[in-house]
Amino acid sequence: MPIMPTTFVQWYYNNASTILASLNPSLSQASVNETCSTHFECVHDYLLRINSFTSKATASALDMFQQSRLILGSIEILK
């Protein structure tokens, strides 16, 4: 049975970040949080790939999507 993404990220933050960081310093909570801030999708991507470039791209795309929703929402209100 596959692990759900939210369960995986919760497992990391609640139980595994110290262990994983001892195996690879790039998996420390500080590194993950610096790369991803509060973006769940970015954290999930980073933990799977350990690639800050692709994870930052995920975070950037999420920010742009959220900004687009806000802009479109404000245009809809103005009509």
Description:
The chain has 79 residues and is an all-alpha fold. The protein has one domain (5-78). It is 81% helix and 0% strand. It contains four helices and no strands. The chain has helices at 5-23, 29-36, 40-49, 52-78. Helix 1 (5-23) packs across helix 3 and helix 2 (29-36) crosses helix 3 (40-49). The chain is elongated. The termini are far apart. The mean pLDDT is 86.
The succession of helices and strands, N to C, reads HHHH
Distance between the termini: 48 Å
If you average the pLDDT, what whole number results?
86
How much of the polypeptide forms β-strand, as a percent range? under 5%
SSE layout:
Layout: H1 5-23, H2 29-36, H3 40-49, H4 52-78
Helix pairs in contact: 1-3, 2-3, 3-4
Note the main attributes of this structure:
79 residues; mainly alpha; 4 helices; elongated
Quick overview of this protein structure:
This protein is mostly helical and 79 residues long. It contains four helices and no strands.
